[in-house]
Amino acid sequence: MPAFDLLSGASTPIVGKDEWLAHRGDILSRMQEAMGALPSQPSLPLDLRVESEVAESGYTLRTISFATESWDRLWAYLLIPDTLNQAVPGILALHPTSSSGKGAVMGLGEAYYPAYARELAQLGYVVLAPDYPGFGDAVETRARLYAEGYVSCTMKGVWNHQRCLDVLCAMPEVNKERLASVGHSLGGHNSLFLGAFDARIKAVVTSCGFTRFGRYMEGDLTGWSHDGYMPRIREVYGCSPERMPFDFTEVLAAQAPHAAFVCAPLNDSNFEVSGVVDCVNAAEPVYSLLGATGRLVAQYPTGGHDFPESTREKAYAFLKRWL
Q1: Helix, strand, coil: what percent of the chain each, to 5?
Q2: Is residue 210 within 8 Å of 188, Cβ to Cβ?
Q3: How far apart are the first and last CA of the chain?
Q4: Cβ atoms 51, 63 nearer than 8 A
Q5: 3-state secondary structure string, 175-214?
Q6: pLDDT tens digits for 122-151?
Q7: What is the model's pTM?
């Protein structure tokens, strides 16, 4: 049996840290087989612009834009608490699937979503909430990114979110050693993807963001294969879990030793809960190996595809502990 049998979802013996680090590098390589290569681009000035600013309850809300690439600017909400006596943690608030994009995490838009960007700012964090390509002010980006050489929207999202971290790291109000990403649904798996590829992320909160591919829609990965995710899942892997080069058992384990909080409701129709349990069980030995026992926490509330208030409160307490 291989030392890291993470694809099976089983809890397996771990041999050593060096072997895990080599295996983790292999996981990232296999993720890029489906997502395309992580961009390797020369440093580009952020050219950050404050488009508007308004005082809100407990924080200042700025609408900003900045360059992610020579051909693309990303719009985002930046929330800065009113009273800052020192540099504080910075948090990305990544939105779920919603035409309003970043507005969804502000409690805006066509459907109710928890306003975790507002809640986190009111707790004293600097929060940055960007649009994912295809939503909000980034609708045109999704079509263009393929013409510019990307093979997945997922990887463009990873790159954009890394540029968001650049914004936070450039702010004197932010402690750049204490960065996190929080997201529900679409934002839940995008937070995990970012945490896997960028070591600056020290904590991730993922709500309704994943399950094992074989447990997603009874093994039909069509929902992952359109131009908003990874078309190679259809074109190369035939929407088959058995042919996928990676699974979320590995993506979750790749967060270690950084803190990870999982919200997986028992009746989530998108991301079946037993597949989430498999991922947690597979990742726990890696956390133990790296001396990070206790930094992986999973909550399984009743209900469907939601990030309920009681679980958000636990997630915020988790962030306070590990940031």
Answers
A1: 40, 20, 40
A2: yes
A3: 37
A4: yes
A5: EEEEEEEEEECHHHHHHHHHHHHCCCEEEEEEECCCCCHH
A6: 999 999 999 999 999 999 999 899 999 999
A7: 0.95
